[in-house]
Write a structure and sequence with these properties.
With 91 residues, this protein is an alpha+beta fold. The protein is 25% helix and 38% strand. The chain has one domain: 2-Layer Sandwich (Alpha-Beta Plaits). Helix 1 (17-28) packs antiparallel against helix 2 (50-60). The termini are far apart. It has two helices and five strands, in the order βαββαββ.
Length: 91
């Protein structure tokens, strides 16, 4: 299954982006992780079936209701990562 790395920019911290991304990932069967970055972005590594992964990326471009997403930088990873679930990394 393909793996993508995402950097989501805009007003994405303090708006429940990570928690909502986890809910969406769980619903779509996506595994990986999400965390806040020190520069105010959200970073995600996601693995899943191609169609489901695309749906997840499209959701990331909008985010939760209070988010204002200005850009999503998507990088496909050559090496498939194996995750058991989708985790929210804090701190």
């Amino acid at each position: 299954m393909p793996t993508s790395h995402l950097i989501i920019k805009g007003r994405v911290q303090g708006v429940f982006y990570r928690a909502t991304a986890k809910d969406m990932a769980d619903e779509l069967g996506i595994t990986g992780w999400v965390k806040n970055t020190v520069d105010g972005d959200v970073e995600i590594t996601a693995t899943g079936a191609e169609e489901r992964l695309q749906q997840f990326i499209e959701w990331c471009k909008m985010g939760p209701r209070k988010a204002i997403v200005t850009d999503v930088v998507v990088t496909k990873k050559d090496v498939e990562e194996k995750f058991k679930s989708f985790a929210v990394i804090r701190g």
